[in-house]
From TrEMBL:
Residues 1-59 form the HTH lysR-type domain. Transmembrane segments: none annotated. The keyword Transcription regulation applies. This is LysR substrate-binding domain-containing protein. Belongs to the LysR transcriptional regulatory family. Keywords: DNA-binding, Transcription, Transcription regulation. Pfam families: HTH_1, LysR_substrate. It comes from Mesorhizobium qingshengii. Gene3D superfamilies: 3.40.190.290, Winged helix-like DNA-binding domain superfamily/Winged helix DNA-binding domain.
Length: 299
């Protein structure tokens, strides 16, 4: 039995929750994938997967084995990559999850720059606002905005993310600018369900103010676009508002009353050694964001 092939198949099956998807990833048939897992179960003398006609899921023993063997396989792959590369350059497939708006507006050009600088790294980037499970879904790295809930991950703060309140010149001309945070209650507000609780906005010193409005989007770019044509006030991340502020489409209001900024985090799994492909990506992002985020400059 090729124990290494069996171990890799088990990891792929648990990450993708599918024998057929795991088989496709590793280039074998579904029948061969099932045989490899069965051989591993026979070797260990324990059931590793619950199988039904529609899904597979790890048993308690399978989950425990997966968590240990995955890190060992990663260390082995990293060692292989280092030995095979005469220059020691990072290599391998880097699977990332990034928020949609931040990823498309800010990160995409930087990912292209990273890919050009690291030709031996294969980038596989998922643009999603869903909080992925790095271990179960096979991600090496994720970027997250706001508070972190999973204490089992390592987190590296990349930069602050400001929440700014803005409006179009046409709206401010027609309805005036709020003088105090409490004044937004009387204005038409465009609600971003990703950065507000749907009923209030946050300001300095922990103040929350009730808001109302007829427009609610789960995307900051859609909110900013609506605000730019004069449909109301909007509160959202400065990486979305920044370019429109620089061009005069939006004007900041209540600038002295901003809430404490959120944070942009890089999160990755624990382990004795951080894979070189992950390390160089995190270092690359830190170098671009940490000192002064580019979207906050020039306004």
């Amino acid at each position: 039995m090729d124990r290494l092939a069996c171990d890799r198949m088990l990891v792929a099956v648990i990450e993708r929750r599918s024998l057929s998807a795991a088989a496709q990833k590793l280039g074998v048939s579904s029948g061969q994938a099932s045989k490899l897992v069965s051989r591993l179960e026979e070797e260990l003398g324990v059931q590793l997967l619950h199988r039904t006609t529609r899904s597979v899921s790890p048993t308690e023993a399978g989950r425990a084995y997966f968590e240990r063997i995955k890190s060992l396989l990663e260390e082995m792959d990293e060692l292989d990559s280092t030995i095979r590369s005469a220059s020691g350059a990072p290599r391998g497939r880097l699977v990332m999850s990034v928020p949609i708006t931040f990823g498309t507006q800010v990160l995409a050009p930087l990912l292209a720059e990273f890919a050009r600088a690291h030709p031996l790294i294969e980038l596989d980037v998922s643009f999603s606002d869903r909080v992925v499970n790095l271990v179960e879904e096979g991600f090496d790295l994720a970027l997250r905005i706001g508070s972190l809930r999973d204490s089992t991950l390592i987190a590296r703060k990349l930069c602050p993310i400001r929440l700014v309140t803005t409006a179009a010149p046409s709206y401010l001309h027609a309805f005036g600018a709020p003088d105090r945070p409490e004044d937004v209650t009387g204005h038409a507000c465009i609600l971003d369900s990703n950065f507000a609780d749907g009923a209030s906005w946050r300001f300095a010193r922990g103040l929350t103010v009730p808001i109302r409005g007829r427009l609610r989007f789960s995307n900051a770019e859609a909110c900013a676009a609506a605000a730019a044509i004069g449909l109301g006030l909007v509160q959202g991340p400065s990486f979305v508002a920044g370019e429109r502020i620089r061009t005069g489409q939006l004007i900041p209001v209540l600038a002295g009353c901003e809430a404490d900024p959120m944070a942009l985090w890089a999160v990755y799994t624990t382990g004795r050694h951080l894979a070189a492909k992950v390390r160089v990506m995190v270092d690359f992002l830190v170098s671009h964001f940490q000192d002064s985020p580019p979207w906050d400059q020039g306004w």
